[in-house]
């Protein structure tokens, strides 16, 4: 792959995603479900899900039982790799040690695609272990375009980037997130992982229309949808991944599937993880939604005290900080 990622390469990338097609309905592979999944004869029993998504970092440099489970399951199910450490938006140099390990894992897993987030996770060599929002400007767009091209050179495939949930915006941002994504995919051929729960969370926190956000995206480049359940903390929503999917998120999911023509669906559940059959039952609600049946699930109302997110705690303890983080006037 040359440094000039030209129009022909972008068309090849689009063809690559199109060739992979709709994987159906999947869940994130979590260690809590290893015993049940390893007890299933996947050759003879009806498969409980169509595919799995793994957290890439859980399997990099992991050659123990988790790698064994992954080897067994990848022989029976399509796999997708989803990461949280690419740090694509940071001003730090790209971590080529990490990227080379990601490439090695990709060679082992042979995933349908490799995804991460449109965000930055650290600076000056310090990892925040959080998905931090990008300033959405022409300068940051050019910066991310250069880095996506570099990552795609290393991985030898187009990558897929997810819209993050955010809790603050930059007053000097000059582009909307859908406009930023549109320019990014046009320049690099990367795909979009549309997390409709993140759209719901960010829209509530910043006061924009979530349906207008989804309608403004380049739908032909959306290859996957994430579903999850957030928590309502009064004056903000938190992307907790520990609750059933609420009705408002299901409505956005139905809209996104209509606009894309149908793409792969993945349910995320990363805290208070339920038994596998409960997880699959929640995933199967997506099929009901596509048949016009909308689950009447309310957004979980939560006690703020249990969250570790420092911004949320500070907002409720310091009224001046809470005022400064109100949505930016457009």
UniProtKB/TrEMBL annotation:
SUPFAM superfamilies: Xylose isomerase-like. Gene3D superfamilies: Divalent-metal-dependent TIM barrel enzymes. PANTHER family: UPF0276 PROTEIN HI_1600 (PTHR42194:SF1). This is DUF692 domain-containing protein. It comes from Pseudoalteromonas viridis.
